[in-house]
TrEMBL record:
It comes from Penicilliopsis zonata CBS 506.65. The keyword Transit peptide applies. It is found in: Mitochondrion. This is Uncharacterized protein. GO terms for molecular function: structural constituent of ribosome. GO terms for biological process: translation. GO terms for cellular component: mitochondrial large ribosomal subunit. Pfam families: MRP-L27. It comes from the Eukaryota. The keyword Lipoprotein does not apply. Its main location: mitochondrion. Keywords: Mitochondrion, Ribonucleoprotein, Ribosomal protein, Transit peptide. Belongs to the mitochondrion-specific ribosomal protein mL41 family.
Length: 123
C-alpha cells in the first residue's frame, strides 16, 4: 500500500476523520476561555483580545485604509422603470449579461474565433 514519506506527511493536513474522538482542529483563533464540567463556556478575561486606541487620535499620524469622507460610489448599471407615468432611472446590480458583455470586450479575439467556428459548423 502507498504510504507518504515523512516530508510529505508534514504537508498533508490532519482532519478530524484521521484521529480518535476528542480531537478538535479549531480555526487557529485561540481560546477565550474553557468549558466547565456542566457544559457551559467560561470566559477567561485574561485571554480576551483588547485593542488599544491612541489617546490623541486626532494628531495620530497613521490613517485608516478607507476615508470616511468618500462619497458613495455610483453603479454604472441602471434600469428604466415607469412610476406615475414618468420614466425613472434606478441603479441595479451586475447581471450575468453584463458580465458576459464585459468578458467579450476584454477577450474579443476568442469571441470572434468562436463565432467563426460556429459559422463553419452551420455551413
Amino acid at each position: 500500500m502507498f504510504k507518504p514519506s515523512q516530508p510529505m506527511m508534514a504537508r498533508l493536513r490532519l482532519t478530524t476523520k484521521q484521529v480518535n474522538g476528542g480531537y478538535y482542529k479549531g480555526t487557529r483563533t485561540g481560546s477565550m476561555g474553557y468549558f466547565a464540567k456542566n457544559g457551559s463556556y467560561v470566559i477567561d478575561w485574561k485571554k480576551v483580545r483588547t485593542y488599544v486606541v491612541p489617546e490623541d487620535l486626532d494628531a495620530f499620524k497613521l490613517t485608516p485604509f478607507v476615508t470616511k469622507r468618500m462619497a458613495p460610489t455610483q453603479s454604472k448599471y441602471t434600469k428604466e422603470i415607469e412610476k406615475d407615468g414618468l420614466p425613472v432611472t434606478l441603479e441595479r446590480a451586475l447581471e450575468g449579461k453584463d458580465y458576459l458583455a464585459l468578458w467579450a470586450s476584454d477577450n474579443g479575439q476568442e469571441v470572434f474565433e468562436k463565432e467563426r467556428i460556429e459559422e463553419e459548423g452551420r455551413q
